[in-house]
Amino acid sequence: QLQACGGGLVQAGGSLRLSCVASGLTFRTYNMGWYRQAPGKERELVAAITSGGSITYYADSVTGRFTVSRDNDKNTVYMQMNSLKPEDTAVYYCAARRNGASKYDYWGQGTQVTVSS
Q: What integer pLDDT is reported at residue 112 of this predicted model?
């Protein structure tokens, strides 16, 4: 129900834009998050956006470099990633959390982002 894409191989300092298309759910009632998991590390929340798009959250490690946005008419959430660093290398997952829920209900399949130095 969540299909993420946009990952790839990029040099340090480069940019990528991830997209995540939702289907089978009322997208505008879900808060959305982007997580990442690097080899040997725990999954971490990178960015999130509320259902209406008015509030965003960023991990300290990406603040000022990543921007999360959404288009509720297209059932899509985006994450623009600029000034990429090798430490951003990970599999990136989008996730959906219903308004009022404490956990993310749905997860995408993940898209690989690799940043070379």
A: 98
Residue with tokens 């289907």, as numbered in its chain: 23
Task: Give residue-wise pLDDT tens across range 99-108.
Answer: 889 999 999 9
Core vs surface per residue 40-65: b (16+ CB within 10 A) or e: eeeeeebbbbebebeeeebeeebeee
Q: Supply the pLDDT for residue 84.
A: 98
SS3 of the chain: CEEEECCEEEECCCCEEEEEEECCCCHHHEEEEEEEECCCCCCEEEEEECCCCCCEEECCCCCCCEEEEEECCCCEEEEEECCCCHHHCEEEEEEEEECCCCCCCEECCCEEEEEEC
Mean pLDDT of 15-30: 97
